[in-house]
Design a protein that fits this description.
By secondary structure, the chain is α+β, with helices and mostly antiparallel strands. The protein has one domain. Helices cover about 40% and strands about 15% of the residues. It has eight helices and eight strands; from the N terminus they run H-E-E-E-E-E-H-H-H-H-E-E-H-H-E-H. A three-stranded antiparallel sheet has the order 1-2-3. A three-stranded mixed sheet has the order 4-5-8. Strands 6-7 form a two-stranded antiparallel ribbon.
């Protein structure tokens, strides 16, 4: 319960700092990495993003692929392509900003589509998801702008020490 509170609070704090045109369509140019810190890349607005050069994906994009396929693809389909059960995130992520993504994943969402209630469960208590929210966001962002192809990335950068330290801290190790 405390972890859900922390993630919800983080989302609430970050929401005002996200792009004011929250639903503006993401593009490769907008998603471009302009800064890097400890192996993690950020766009011009300070949102986590991917870096793919010469077919080599950064660690966080690769790990996002792994984490997405561990927990999210069951509903949202392989590679974010969707299913009869949940939307294609590889398409809808073009219009979802970072703060909204954090909020939806942590707190869940209920809506009515075609007269039917659909539910995205809350994952704020699931360490296998919330410890890797940035990674999953980065991967889906790369898929949304066609920077990352379908399937497991064939080449990846090494895992940064900062990622190892954060993971140990978040997972309680």
């Amino acid at each position: 319960m405390l972890s859900r509170f922390i993630i919800s609070t983080l989302a609430a704090v970050l929401l005002p700092f996200t792009n004011s045109t929250a639903l503006a369509e993401d593009s490769k140019e907008k998603a471009a990495s302009v800064t890097e810190e400890d192996g993690k890349h950020f766009d011009a607005e300070g949102n986590p993003t991917f870096k793919i050069e010469n077919g080599i994906v950064d660690w966080y994009t690769f790990n996002g692929y792994r984490r997405y396929h561990a927990d999210c693809h069951v509903c949202h389909g392989p590679d974010g392509e969707g299913s009869s059960y949940a939307p294609a995130l590889a398409k809808t992520m073009k219009n979802v900003d970072y703060g909204t993504f954090l909020s939806i994943v942590a707190e869940g969402r209920k809506s009515v589509v075609g007269g039917k209630e659909v539910v995205m469960p809350a994952f704020g208590d699931n360490k296998n998801v919330y410890c890797y929210l940035d990674d999953i966001y980065i991967y889906l962002r790369a898929r949304a702008v066609d920077a990352a192809p379908r399937g497991r990335p064939p080449k990846k950068a090494n895992k940064p020490e900062a990622a190892t330290a954060y993971e140990a801290s978040c997972m309680g190790g």
